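lol forgot to send this yesterday, sorry. struct tokens for the thing we talked abt
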């Protein structure tokens, strides 16, 4: 968790404590507030000390229980302010993957130029439905969260309509490992690689592959997307980071340009995809 995130969470806790202590009917103790809300008392302490992130429902209940319901909008704005940068998977996926896919669908609609780097799987924007099903299923199992696989797949495939929008451009780089990772049955991966070969010819897509044999200036680490050179989205195991401060965005832009120096394109990219496809021994 970043320092900025934690500081913002602690600041929200200070505001919650202030509301508790200034309740119109008299200050409330933490224990009294917990009893009124039907919460375990430690929850009040954790929220006030920035050791637990409140939900919107928590904030509404707190504002009403302290006799200050008008404070809810302010509290929610504070929460949205720091959650817009670090979005935990546990919270985002509480009702399944579709909601997250819809958020990305909206973000894609608002941008025109995309730069992506992926080291371990095929970009979502280029995935086949079968491949996407396996990805969503495996992550749902890992996070122990509800499965809404078919709804999520439909949302992901709808996003792919943007590939045919002449106003958009995709500059994508894959590590060869992403072509060979068996995160699905070989037959599904074979179809996915056929789909990937077709994407090389799209006029809105520049697809580069970094071969295993390439000389690398930096390690092929965490995947990321850059939207219009002004926003970066990075996925980690526990959360999704939305980065918009200029120095950090510039770091990812330099990283992408450095990785691009090791990539091959056109016929050379086709040859690497074809070799991965042939290695599957699938008709």
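and heres what i got for the seq, position by position
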């Amino acid at each position: 968790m970043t320092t900025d995130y934690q500081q913002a969470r602690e600041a929200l806790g200070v505001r919650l404590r202030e509301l508790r202590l200034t309740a119109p009917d008299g200050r409330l103790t933490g224990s009294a507030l917990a009893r009124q809300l039907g919460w375990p008392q430690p929850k009040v302490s954790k929220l006030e000390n920035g050791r637990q992130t409140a939900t919107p429902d928590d904030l509404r209940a707190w504002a009403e229980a302290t006799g200050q319901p008008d404070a809810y909008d302010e509290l929610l704005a504070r929460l949205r302010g720091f959650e817009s940068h670090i979005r935990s998977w546990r919270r985002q996926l509480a009702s399944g993957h579709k909601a997250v896919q819809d958020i990305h669908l909206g973000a894609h609609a608002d941008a025109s130029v995309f730069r992506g780097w992926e080291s371990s799987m095929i970009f979502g924007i280029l995935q086949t439905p079968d491949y996407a099903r396996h990805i969503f299923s495996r992550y749902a199992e890992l996070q122990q969260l509800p499965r809404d696989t078919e709804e999520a797949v439909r949302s992901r495939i709808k996003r792919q309509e943007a590939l045919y929008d002449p106003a958009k451009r995709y500059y994508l780089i894959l590590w060869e490992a992403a072509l060979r990772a068996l995160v699905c049955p070989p037959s599904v991966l074979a179809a996915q690689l056929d789909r990937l070969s077709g994407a090389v010819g799209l006029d809105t897509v520049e697809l580069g592959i970094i071969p295993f044999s390439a000389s690398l200036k930096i390690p092929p680490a965490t995947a990321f997307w850059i939207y219009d050179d002004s926003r970066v989205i990075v996925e980690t195991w526990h959360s999704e980071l939305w980065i918009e401060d200029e120095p950090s965005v510039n770091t990812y832009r330099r990283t992408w340009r450095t990785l691009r120096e090791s990539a091959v394109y056109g016929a050379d990219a086709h040859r690497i995809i074809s070799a991965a496809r042939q290695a599957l021994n699938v008709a």
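The chain has a mean pLDDT of 91. anyway ping me if u want another try
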